[in-house]
Write a structure and sequence with these properties.
GO molecular function: phosphorelay response regulator activity; protein-glutamate methylesterase activity; protein-glutamine glutaminase activity
Order of helices and strands: EHEHEHEHEEEHHEHEHEEEEHEHEHEH
Distance between the termini: 57 Å
Low-confidence stretches: 142-149
EC number: 3.1.1.61, 3.5.1.44
CATH superfamily of the largest domain: Methylesterase CheB, C-terminal domain
Domain CheB-type methylesterase: 157-349
Catalytic activity: L-glutaminyl-[protein] + H2O = L-glutamyl-[protein] + NH4(+); [protein]-L-glutamate 5-O-methyl ester + H2O = L-glutamyl-[protein] + methanol + H(+)
CATH topology of the largest domain: Rossmann fold
Number of helices: 12
Strand order of the largest sheet: 10-11-9-8-14-15-16
CATH class of the largest domain: Alpha Beta
Keywords: Chemotaxis, Cytoplasm, Hydrolase, Phosphoprotein
Mean pLDDT: 90
Length: 352
């Protein structure tokens, strides 16, 4: 029996980009390009004709920009969408808005290895297409107001004495937002490894900082991990935690990718198992692959509380599935349940 190929529609005003994407995708045994479009209005008709499984969508295009088109698309015909963006400050913010609107992931054109009018690294785009094809496109929206009201500092007076490690990949930007937004000002220090291109993480942290009560920033080497703060691993760099005297600090490392990722969730979690032990809470969220599963298991062995997002609320149930299969997660929870459980676990652990 021949497996069904993933049908891809590529929307980009650059003829070169359309040709490169077509060449790479059609070279894969499990996917093919059913059509290409130079602008969203053409794409609209092609979607009706070909019913693609995955759409790659540029941001800056004639007649209608990618964000406006995505807004209409997710309202009328939700489907897995990969944003393909030039790496500029403006575009990184627009790409994050696209993720909020329901895009599965974002790809930086600068990260595709395009040289001499050829794409020299096809693994990134094809991996993301495979993840998108397995995803459940949805718009999570804002965190529930009752959750924001319920998680108050006074309810968890000792919670700030613990540390939280969060790992995520595909679908993770919105999942992380839903974990952080309900947290009170005295939340534990939080360290985040999200698979994201270099150049997008600063805008991601700034966006979270505007919507959260805790302070969110891109991590810098050597800074202490403080309560009420969250630190996002810079794109393309591993993030670790370490102990210096009586302080716990962040360490940046440009070592080789682990599980094909840098930052790697396993690198973060393994450093937490080594240096934090029972002081840590590990949380593995939506994402394709297995990064973070082994590290979460090491955290559990070291005495940490370990949580994994459940299948029903994951955009892609890959990384959490692997962690559950390995017995790494003490509890498996819906995304909406994680903020409260995080605070309860931090407060109860501090009392013992």
């Amino acid at each position: 029996m021949i497996a069904k190929k993933i049908k891809v529609l590529c929307v980009d005003d650059s003829a070169l980009m359309r040709d490169l994407l077509t060449e790479i995708i059609n070279a894969q045994p499990d996917m093919h390009v059913v059509a290409t479009a130079s602008d969203p209005l053409i794409a609209r008709d092609l979607i009706k004709r070909h019913d693609p499984d995955v759409l790659t969508l540029d941001i800056n295009m004639p007649r209608m920009d990618g964000l406006v088109f995505l807004t209409h698309l997710m309202r009328l015909r939700p489907m897995p969408v990969l944003m393909v963006s030039s790496l500029t400050r403006k575009n990184s913010k627009t790409s994050l808005k696209a993720l909020e609107l329901g895009a599965v992931d974002v790809i930086a054109k600068s990260g595709l290895g395009i040289r001499d009018n050829r794409m020299h690294d096809d693994s990134l785009i094809v991996d993301k297409i495979r993840a998108a094809a397995q995803s459940k496109p949805c718009r999570l929206g804002a965190a529930p107001r009752h959750a924001l009201a319920a998680l108050t500092s006074s309810s968890y007076p000792q919670a700030s004495k613990r540390f939280v490690m969060i790992g995520a990949s595909t679908g993770g930007t919105e999942a992380i937002r839903h974990v952080l937004e309900p947290l009170p000002e005295n939340a534990p220090g939080i360290v985040i490894a999200q698979h994201m291109p270099s150049g997008f993480t600063r805008s991601f942290a700034e966006r979270l900082d505007r919507s959260c009560r805790i302070k969110v920033s891109e991590a810098t080497h050597g800074e202490p991990i403080l309560p009420g703060h969250a630190y996002v691993a810079p794109g393309g760099i591993h993030l670790k935690v370490a102990r210096e005297g009586t302080r716990y600090v962040l360490k940046l490392d440009d070592g080789e990718p682990v599980n094909r990722h840098r930052p790697s969730v396993d690198v973060l979690f393994e450093s937490a198992a080594q240096h934090l032990g029972k002081l840590a809470i590990g949380i593995l969220l939506t994402g394709m692959g297995k990064d973070g599963a082994a590290g979460l298991g090491r955290m559990r062995q070291a005495g940490a509380m370990t949580l994994a997002q459940n299948e029903a609320t994951c955009v892609v149930y890959g990384m959490p599935r692997e962690a559950v299969a390995q017995g790494a997660a003490r509890e498996v929870l819906a995304l909406s349940e994680i903020p409260r459980r995080l605070m309860e676990s931090a407060a109860s652990a501090a009392e013992h």
